[in-house]
Amino acid sequence: MNGRASGRRTSSGPGRVDHRAGAGEHEQVPLEITRLHLASLQGLDGRRWPVHGFVVTHPGGAVLVDTGVGGPQEWLDDWRVVNRSVADALADLDMSPADIGLVINTHLHFDHCGQNAVFKHAPCYVQRAELSRAERESPELYDWFGFAGARFELLDGDAEVLPGLEVIATPGHTAGHQCVLVRGEGGAFDLLIGDAAYTPRIYADPGSDQLPAGQASDVVVWRDSMRRIRSLDPERVHFCHHTDVVHR
Ligand SMILES: [Zn+2]
Q1: Are residues 191 and 180 in contact, defined by beta-carbon separation less than 8 angstroms?
Q2: Measured in angstroms, how far is the CA atom of residue 58 from the centroid of ligand 1?
Q3: Ligand 1 centre and the CA of 109: distance in Å?
Q4: Fewer CB near the terminus (10 Å): N or C of the chain?
Q5: Residues whose CB is under 5 A from ligand 1 (ion)?
Q6: Span from the CA of 106 to the centroid of ligand 1 (angstroms)
Q7: In b/e form, how buried is each residue of 26-49, taking b as 16+ CB within 10 angstroms?
Q8: 201 Cα: distance to centroid of ligand 1 (angstroms)
């Protein structure tokens, strides 16, 4: 179900440092990515789209990237959402919401921050520009999640969140969209692309005129972000709305 889940049980405990060849140079323990299936919804094209979140385990705990779908019932009805509680999805990994020490939202659409309220104990890393956009464009959603009570850590551009875990600002899908970069061994990294590209096809050919509805709120800015993402040449790309993992 994901690229790097095997062995999580044995390598994620405190003090269990992985000393494989090549890792010593940076003293960097490879982080592990586990994909969560959190929902499916009906896209504007009439097809069913999965909704994924990602757990990134590190020596000190776990980070959740995107929290799945939530919001007013009419939104869930409109999008024909078949939803799953993020707590149930975490339980499949023998985890509970309390095990998540930090949340990153790639952006604040209802299928990426919908269950943020489950993690009130955790700081939530989001771009400042994205929070402003949500407040401006989606006051209904902004109010629904009680963002005033949330512990937002507001970012202005690229940032290292933890050793080996970074966000890069990739505006275009929304004004404050960000992708997450998970460093592995030897300088390689995985990219959690969020909604910067819905599918591997769009990632492969961002110049196409056939963009699905909603892919880019600002096409010029979005294409710049896609150029940047592709120039980083990630080892693997993980999608929120597609089950394929693209390998370099
Ligand atoms: Zn989105």
Answers
A1: yes
A2: 26
A3: 5
A4: C
A5: 109, 195
A6: 9
A7: eebbbbbbbbbebbbbebeeeeeb
A8: 17
In the reported structure, the alpha carbon of residue 240 is separated from the centroid of ligand 1 by a whole-number distance in angstroms of: 9
- Rounded distance from Cα 79 to ligand 1 centre (Å): 13
In the chain (248 residues long), the average pLDDT of successive 10-residue segments reads 34 35 52 96 90 95 96 89 96 97 96 93 96 91 74 96 96 98 90 97 91 94 97 96 95
User: Which domains can be identified in the chain, with CATH numbers?
Assistant: 8-247 (3.60.15.10)
Which residues have C-beta within 8 Å of that of residue 242, sequence separation ≥ 6?
A: 49, 50, 198, 199, 200
Inter-residue contact 81 to 40 (CB < 8 Å): yes
Question: pTM for this structure?
Answer: 0.87
* Gap from CA of 214 to ligand 1 centroid (Å): 7
